[in-house]
Amino acid sequence: MLEAHTRRGKVTLQLIVTLLAIPFLIPLVVMVQGSLAGKGWGNYLAVLSLPQLPSFFLNSAIISVLTIALALLCTLLAAFGFAKLHIRGKEFFFWVLLAALTLPEIVLVTPLFVTATTTNLYNTYWAVVLPLAALQIPFTILITRTFMAGIPDALIEAARIDGANTWRAFWHVVLPLTRPIAAAVIVLTLISAWNAYLLPLIFLQDANSQVVTQVPSFFQGQYNDDQTKVLASAVISAIPIVVAYLCLQKLFERGLSAGALK
Amino acid sequence: MTDMLTKGGADASVPSSGVGARSKGRAPATRRRSSMRAPGFPWILPALVVSSGLVYFCIGYNGWVSLLDWNGISPIQTFVGIDNYLQAFADPIFWGTLQHTLIYFVVTFVAQTVLGIVLAVLLHSRVRLAGLYKVIIFVPVVLAPAIMAPVFRIMFAGDGPVNGFLEAIGLGFIAQPWLAQSSTALGVLMIMQIWNTTGISFILFYAAISQVEHDVIEAARLDGAGNIRIVWSIVVPSVRGTIVALAMLGAIGTLKLFDIPYLVTSGGPNFATEFLGTYIYRQAVPLGNVGYASALSIILLVLALGMALVLSIRGNEERQAKKGAVR
Q: Is there a domain that residue A154 lies in?
């Protein structure tokens, strides 16, 4: 894009990029450095030796998996319906779904809190999974429908002429072609479920059902003044999603840039 | 926004509806196709139940409770009509949240757009280690504000690294308790937001810029255009669609804002960083004014929908450009 012919120009470009990129690293450096202050790795040992820690991660993992499964199932079925099947009042139903795109999750808090406490869903995974999936589904359907509409009708027709019913055509012809967008849906849902804070904060009050995003506040309560351990707990909570990102970089970027088009 | 999105969706569905329209003219084809296509509704039913069922139940519930004076637990619910709404419009904290939302949106949107475009252009140029820079810019996006909030609180604390750094470079007189005073706390939140989500703007601009024709740039260069001229006259116009899309994302995102202000400043000091999201939470959960919180929720919802409509009308002109840029 930009061209620099002289050596000096090239060095200048490199310098500008570096200067602009450094601020993105600073919080991470502060986090890691701070977590190693005082007792050094001892901070990590102290955090890791807390008996509750595995359950934080386990709960986040369970919630993420359930949310992804529910959202993916609803999304793939509905996107296929919207893109390829005849539905009376299709655009109306699509609008009904899409209107939820602007819905802030805080608006769900009062009704769901009252409902969950009266229906024994309080302190269960479903109290978090259902609203998370509900808020995710409109957008994932939007991007998946666009993608499925691009699959030629002729392919589905051909499957039908070979005697396949709609379900088999969906399963054997459409699904295999939908993998790229399904991957984006999974990544998008994973990030919003893993990073969710408000819904778990409200619905998972039980000490055993807390999730990863609550780890730093938990340690703040545990070690009032000891910031080093709070930072160590932040590093430990950050590691899984950063590792996942580094391993699946392309998928994450595709998923999130699709997500950014909300 | 929703309007724009539906239009996008509707465009995408043209192939299928095109088939439907054609088959109307041909009776045999209609019979075969429609029998195959008939039961579409069961396919969308799970999504409607899980998503719309829950969402519209909650909206309706908020609408009803917003007319009550109720603490959420007590069996006593007093019907007060639109009193909660009148209370909101007379509440200086409510107006404060709107003001913070506006400032926050404008500053973070402008900063992320400028940074995103500049970084995307630079990393499309011949720069070494471009892959590494991309990762550095994008990693904050996957990190939850909940995880990073303690880090930012410590960084900007009175005795934190930011003040330490200022003192070390001889700017000690600027050092101040950033989060403890009303004048600077909002700024810290905006810095955290920019740090957190510039990666998304960057990735979108990066994708959009790779669509810019190299011939056009070469031609401009032959005509004597310099680097800055090329960015301003060719790159920026070609990513206008992305800018509009990001404006919508930012506007809705700021209206919804909760995690960052709640975790870093809890809306303080003295409500200086209170947003609608944190204020609704404060009213509903710690204060137990569920009726008032519901009225605020409905106002928030109306604002978000209104914003989406206004922006999508503005954005419609840019829609073609956006499609070109995004794909």
A: yes
User: What residues contact A69, with CB distance under 8 A and at least 6 apart?
Assistant: none
Residues 184-213 of A with CB under 8 A from B: 191, 194-195, 197-198, 202, 212-213
Contact A83 B16 (CB under 8 A): yes
Q: What CATH number matches the domain at B84-326, 1.10.3720.10, 1.10.150.20, 3.40.462.20, 3.40.50.300?
A: 1.10.3720.10
> Strands, E, within A138-257: which ranges?
none
pTM listed for this prediction: 0.84
Domain that holds residue A175: 36-259
Query: Which ipTM score applies to this complex?
Result: 0.86
Are B16 and A61 within 8 A, CB to CB?
no
Judged by a CB distance cut-off of 8 A, whether residue A119 touches chain B is: no
**Residue A30 in 3-state DSSP?**
helix
Per-residue pLDDT of chain A (262 residues; tens, 9 = 90+): 677 778 888 888 899 999 999 999 999 999 998 888 878 888 888 888 888 888 889 999 999 999 999 999 999 999 999 988 888 888 889 888 887 777 778 888 778 777 776 777 778 888 899 999 998 998 889 888 888 888 888 888 888 888 888 888 888 888 888 888 888 889 889 988 999 998 888 888 777 778 888 888 888 777 766 788 888 888 988 899 999 889 888 877 777 666 555 4
Query: Which DSSP helix (H) or strand (E) runs through B68?
Result: strand B68-69
- Classify residue B234 by its DSSP letter: I
